[in-house]
Amino acid sequence: MKPKHWDTVGDAHLLSVELTTDNPETLENLVPYVPSAPGETFVEFAYDLRKLERPKFRCAHCHQRHLAGVVVNKDGQRFLVGHVCGAHIYGTNFAVLKKDYDAAVVRQDILRRVREIRGAVTQFLAWLDTPAFSRDTIALSSSFALRCRGSANS
């Protein structure tokens, strides 16, 4: 079975790309039709602008205007698919494409969180190695030990 598109993308690359867009009509290589040439097809972006007052986008399939959907990339050409058309026209295939995209969104979120945690942990470990931490720790542990001995003698 051929690997899904987003499964083949490395972590560094996934961290460097946007997976959503707030203006899909400005994307390069956007065509108003579904390309007929064979090639890799994958959901590249998603958008949901239904809560905004703005002009709607035209679906490449039904040509109805909408504010929520996905940008599908087929061999480098991008086209818009409304959120209703995707499921109706592609059926199971669209579910697989969307699931691959959704997994990439989750993976990207996890990678970003890990990067943030690593940054915080690195700073914390560096702080533990500072002389000031060592002095404070020794003083605190000595003070604690004295208090414990004092309460044991009472």
Can you tell me about this structure?
This protein is α+β, with helices and mostly antiparallel strands and about 150 residues long. It has a domain at about 5-110. About 50% of the residues lie in helices and about 15% in strands. It is built from 4 helices and 5 strands; from the N terminus they run H-E-E-E-E-E-H-H-H. The strands form 2 sheets. It has a 3-stranded antiparallel β-sheet. Strands 2-3 form a two-stranded antiparallel ribbon. Strand 2 and strand 3 (about 65) form a beta hairpin. Helix 2 (about 85-90) packs across helix 3 (about 90-130). The protein is elongated. The N and C termini lie far apart (about 75 Å). The relative contact order is 0.13. The model has no long low-confidence stretch (mean pLDDT about 85).
TL;DR?
The protein is of the alpha+beta class and 154 residues long. The chain has 4 helices and 5 strands. The chain has a 3-stranded antiparallel β-sheet. It has a two-stranded antiparallel ribbon with strand order 2-3.
- Kindly estimate the percentage of residues that lie in beta strands according to DSSP: 15-25%
The largest sheet is: 3 strands, antiparallel
Q: How many helical elements?
A: 4
Helix content: 40-55%
User: What is the number of beta strands?
Assistant: 5
Structural class: alpha+beta
Radius of gyration: 26 Å
Shape: elongated
Widest sheet: strand ordering: 1-4-5
What order do the SSEs take from the amino end to the carboxyl end, as H and E?
Answer: HEEEEEHHH
Poorly predicted tracts of residues: none
Distance between the termini: 75 Å
Whole-number average pLDDT?
85
